[in-house]
Amino acid sequence: MDDAPTEGGVYPVPTIAAAELAVLREMCEADSMPARLAQCSISELFRLVEGASFLDAPGALNHAQRALASRLNGKRADELRELLGATDDFGSAENRVAALAEPAFSPEGQLSVATAGSAAGPPALQQHSSLSGMAVTDDAKEAALGMVDVGTLAELKGVSRSWLALARRVLCSRLSRCEGQPAPTHMAEITDLNIKVLVDAGRPWEAAAAGRMLPNLARLHWEGFEVNVAAVREVDLDERDEDEEPSESEPRFFEGPAKTALLSCIEGEGEPPLELLLAAVACAGSGEIHSIPVQMMRDDSVSELNWNSHRFLGFEGAMLLAYLVPVMGALTSIDLSNNNLTDYGTNMTVVKKLAAALGVNGGLTKIE
Fold it and tell me: What InterPro entries does this protein map onto (predicted)?
């Protein structure tokens, strides 16, 4: 830990200027974020976070975190690099793109194209040019990003190699840390994943990526619900009641024996949200459901998808595709021409999500 005592038993104390102490006092006394924080530089906000953390002033810390998040949230990597005064040191555009494309749950010790050239492993977090003269601890830097949203943290990975390391630590801690345990540092150490945070961040396809990339993933979490990943793998998704007739217009997903079996894999009070069921299937579902080859799509063993001659997908099927298509590097063609998804009225947001998912997959050359 950065605040561990020295051999002489002395704890390092950050230097807090009188002006900063005055701002911190105002922050402690204010019910809402003080207006003067809007005038603080990025480096000053980091210093205020460190001071608030050292003084154990949660109210001041909350104000500083919110102020910093308001400056960063919604920015893309290039904008963040300029705002933070950082230098692009990835060495090539390919390395930068690889850093931005990796899953949000990638831990700090995960080797990527961005760090593959270093025999010593991931780069150490260095002081940023915008933070010159500000000896802020690594713990303070992580705390400062406590209210920055997941999408922006993912964009921070494309700022520089040091910001990549910091963003990985913050994201992996937020998504995969188990209570009382340190954040995982390698893929094999990740056993739990907060899938709601990823879905809320507009990254539902990371459920499928997790199923492919995390060999020891055991549980998915969603506000009071917990999914047993191993149990989901055993569910026959295509199982239905013997007297059930296939629908030719709007198929019902997760009905009959298949739904009962899937629900038995989820602990929690009440009915799990549809998004969680879809995430569970995308992550660990075997075989196929309603003509969607879930396992083959997750394993990236499909180059063409054609629903032109199949039963209609329905909006739930379209949602499931949005969870799977972005992780399919081998996919080059998808045909949805006989699926009039716009007929689903209030579910137009689903159509938009599917369109966004198709856009994430840069390998698609044919979409109908």
Answer: LRR_dom_sf (IPR032675), SKP1-like_dim_sf (IPR036296), SKP1/BTB/POZ_sf (IPR011333)
Distance from C-alpha of 199 to C-alpha of 217, rounded to nearest angstrom: 17
The string of pLDDT tens digits covering residues 209-226 is 999 999 999 999 999 999
Q: Which residue, 142, 191, 139, 134, is CA-closest to 167?
A: 142
CA 124 – CA 3 distance, rounded (Å): 18
Instruction: In whole angstroms, give the CA distance from residue 138 to residue 127.
Output: 10
Cβ(194)–Cβ(313) below 8 Å: no
Task: Give yes or no for a contact between 172 and 82, defined as CB atoms under 8 angstroms apart.
Answer: no
Beta-carbon contacts of 352 under 8 Å, excluding residues fewer than 6 positions away, are none
Pair of tokens at residue 241: 């009641």
Domain extents in the chain: 18-175, 192-367
Say what the pTM is. Answer: 0.81
289, 252 in Cβ contact below 8 A?
no
- Which residues have CB under 8 Å from 199's CB, separation 6+? 207, 275, 279
